[in-house]
Write a structure and sequence with these properties.
The complex is a heterodimer of chains A (about 290) and B (about 425). Chain A is mostly helical. In chain A, helix 3 packs antiparallel against helix 4 and helix 3 runs parallel beside helix 6. The radius of gyration of chain A is 21 Å and the shape is globular. The N and C termini of chain A lie far apart (about 45 Å). In chain B, the strands form four sheets. In chain B, strands 1-2-5-8-11-14-17-20-23-26-29-32-35 form a 13-stranded mixed sheet, with helices on both faces. Chain B has a domain of about 210 residues: Pectate Lyase C-like (3 Solenoid). Chain B is built from six helices and 40 strands. With about 425 residues, chain B is mainly beta. Classes of the chains: A mainly alpha (about 290), B mainly beta (about 425). Chains A and B meet through helix 4, helix 8, helix 9, helix 10 and helix 11 of A and helix 3 and helix 4 of B.
């Protein structure tokens, strides 16, 4: 009985992806950048939760919905940054270590997937901890109203982290050397968090009519930050937060439930496509 | 089925005031009730009793179920004791009042017809000076329908529509058509299409009504010089719409939780010279929507927690907003068009804005820096409503920060020169005392 169990765990443990993931997790957790970022994330989440609770009383609005809507802001800034930096640190790491790893009898794709899995567990754990602590504060103070949306939002936050790990991995492979990778990562962060939306807003102010609205809807799919933001706000508050535009968007995407699904599927594509691209790059790369 | 039940003859002088008349009537009703003989079994025709009554009589009705489709064609008071039920046939209106100065009080009124075009109602009023008091209307298409009747009082009724119907197939709770000088007070309306529908009805007084879970809480057009006091319009799909009316006064009303797509607390279209004072507009998709409504005065209102506090079209010109509290709205103002020409302060006092980041060095309670109500993002939203999709995006916040830091980016002129620092003082102490 005991041996059978050990055999099974050994089989799992010897899968190269899991091995590499475990190793990656250990390295990431030891890294002080990870600790700092996880700490900042957790503290900020906690501050928002406390502020939301404190705002109760006259305002009486600190239920999960409003508090987590403020958290959307935090997540949109911090999570892509965390993921990009960690992916860059990992994939543009020490040259000797990388060579050693890739010289092992495992495929390059397995190395990549293992690394991303390890990183994801690391930052996912940090985010889940932040959500549990802050959610606990609100839960303890104001009850369970809106907790379903809060959990859905936490899941989407994890998805956002995964997306930017994959994007970061791809970017590092394309950039090559380490300093350039960091520059590239910061540039990507600015692009997705800020520039892209600013450009779209600029275009929107120039366009008119129904085609402009449709174009604006389509631009959402070009930016995973927007996908996660819109989907989160729909599940957190409700679709009416976007007013008439929200109604038009839901009709465009096929109804309230379907539209969240469409947005999440699109977000998952933002995981899959960078991975496939990275796979192609990695296969032909001279390490 | 032999002797007709007693009817109480009260003939209050026509010159007596309404209040006195009402008192006398109820004293008489009480006395008669005291010596009242029990009626034969329920089901005896109320119709025949009404037919036998003389003008000015009071007909007392004890508990039980009575067959309906009554027509009051002479001046009588129909008073229910112990909430008797009047059940309609399912065709036409359960009670139709064609004579002036009738009273219907204290009944459960149910099961009217289902033809919207025939005004099938719990109580259809086609005459003047009637009083509909403390009834409970249920399973009805329209609740109380005033059709060309003036000077009626509808007070303290509880109206519940047919929830199983689509909203579009229901009637209004209280429907007032071409009927001036009516008083609608203290009613509760739910599960109908429009809570209170008013068309061509000047000088209507609407007070202390409670309308919830309907489409439009208030649907209102071509009705001048009307007063709304202390009503509550909550949890409706669209809120209160007031259109094509002048001289409207709204005080102490609550418009809350009207939360469908582009639902609003209050919609005002073509309403010139409105006075809105001390209302609470809370947690709506859009707080106040103003189109082509000029020279309104909004004062001492609390406009809080709406996704959008104010949506104004450029043609909503010359409105004054002072001493209102704008608290925790996601966006304060969207202007469709270039500018509104609104005045955001009067006599050196503006409004309280929870998003105000200025300071008050001289401590007079008025901020020293004007409040820029809109930022670039709000401006863009006014130009293209789809921009709202970028709500909460870092880009929108960057635009807000940029327009705060670089005044050159100010594309709109909407600003409050005298923002108030302390919202508590708006509603307590000196500020409230100045309220006329």
């Amino acid at each position: 009985m005991k041996t059978a169990k050990r055999a099974r765990t050994d089989a799992v443990a010897t899968s190269p992806i899991v091995l590499i993931a475990q190793r990656e997790l250990t390295i990431t957790v030891r890294n002080r950048w990870t600790v700092i970022m996880a700490g900042v994330f957790g503290v900020l989440m906690l501050v928002i939760a406390w502020a939301g609770v404190a705002a109760e009383g006259f305002d009486g609005m600190a239920d999960f919905t409003r508090t987590s809507a403020s958290m959307v802001n935090l997540v949109l800034y911090v999570v892509p940054l965390m993921a990009l930096v960690l992916a860059t640190l990992s994939f543009a790491g020490d040259r000797g270590t990388t060579e050693l790893l890739f010289s092992q009898p495992v495929s390059r794709t397995e190395v990549m997937l293992g690394k991303i899995a390890g990183l994801f567990v690391a930052i996912g754990g940090a985010m889940v901890a932040g959500f549990i602590v802050s959610g606990g504060v609100v839960l303890f103070q104001t009850g369970t109203h809106g907790i379903g949306g809060f959990i859905a939002f936490a899941v989407m936050t994890l998805l956002l982290g995964l997306i930017f790990l994959c994007v970061g991995a791809l970017a590092t492979m394309l950039a090559g050397r380490r300093p350039r990778s960091f520059g590239f990562a910061i540039l990507l962060w600015f692009h997705f968090v800020l520039f892209y939306d600013l450009v779209v807003l600029g275009l929107a102010s120039q366009l008119r009519g129904q085609s402009a609205v449709t174009a604006l809807f389509l631009t959402l799919f070009g930016n995973p930050v927007d996908l996660v933001r819109v989907a989160s706000l729909i599940v957190l508050d409700n679709e009416t937060i976007f007013g008439a535009t929200g109604a038009a968007l839901l009709r465009f995407l096929g109804g309230p439930e379907v539209s969240v699904l469409v947005l999440v599927v699109a977000a998952i594509l933002w995981v899959a496509l960078p991975l496939l691209w990275a796979h192609a790059v990695l296969r032909s790369q001279d390490i | 089925m032999t002797a007709l039940p007693p009817t109480a003859g009260t003939h209050p002088g026509r010159s007596a005031g309404m209040r006195r008349e009402c008192c006398m009537l109820f004293v008489a009703a009480f006395l008669v009730g005291g010596v009242y003989q029990p009626l034969p079994a329920a089901g005896q025709s109320l119709i025949s009793r009404i037919a036998a009554a003389r003008p000015g009589d009071t007909v007392l009705v004890r508990g039980g179920v009575w067959e309906g489709d009554l027509v009051l064609d002479q001046r009588i008071a129909l008073i229910g004791v112990g909430m008797p039920v009047i059940r309609g046939s399912g065709n036409g209106s359960t009670i139709t009042i064609t004579a002036d100065s009738c009273t219907v009080a204290g009944f459960v009124i149910e099961r009217c017809g289902r033809m919207l075009v025939h005004e099938d109602a719990g109580i259809l009023v086609r005459s003047k000076g009637n009083r509909i008091l403390r009834n409970r209307l249920r399973d009805i298409l329209f609740g109380v329908y005033l059709f060309r009747g003036r000077g009626n009082t509808i007070d303290g009724n509880e109206i519940t529509g047919r929830r199983h119907l689509d909203v579009g197939q229901r009637g209004s709770g209280i429907h007032v058509y071409d009927s001036p000088w009516n008083v609608i007070a203290g009613n509760t309306v739910t599960d109908v299409r429009d809570g209170i529908y008013i068309q061509n009805a000047n000088h209507t007084h609407i007070e202390r009504n409670n309308v919830h879970h309907v489409r439009y809480g208030l649907h209102y057009m071509y009705a001048d010089s009307n007063t709304f006091l202390g009503n509550r319009f909550e949890d409706n799909a669209a809120g209160a719409a007031v259109m094509y009316s002048r001289g409207i006064v709204m005080r102490h009303n609550v418009f809350a939780r009207n939360r469908a797509f582009s639902a609003f607390g209050v919609l005002l279209q073509d309403c010139h010279g409105l006075v809105a004072d001390s209302n609470i507009i809370d947690d709506n998709a859009i707080g106040i929507f103003l189109e082509n409504s000029r020279h309104g005065r909004f004062r001492h209102n609390i406009i809080a927690r709406n996704d959008l506090a104010l949506q104004m079209f450029q043609n909503a010109d010359g409105n004054t907003f002072t001493e209102n509290a704008f608290i925790d709205n996601l966006s304060p103002l969207v202007v469709v068009g270039k500018r509104t020409g609104s005045r955001w302060s009067d006599g050196g006092r503006g409004n309280y804005w929870s998003g105000y980041e200025g300071y008050d060095l001289d401590g007079d309670g008025v901020g020293d820096v004007p409040m820029r109500i809109q930022n670039v993002f709000h401006y863009l939203e006014g130009r293209n409503s789809a921009v709202r999709l970028f709500l909460y995006s870092p880009a929108s916040q960057a635009l807000a920060a940029a327009s705060a830091a670089f005044p050159i980016m100010q594309l709109t002129e909407e600003s409050d020169p005298h923002p108030l620092m302390d919202r508590e003082r708006l509603f307590t102490g000196h500020a409230m005392g100045r309220n006329p």
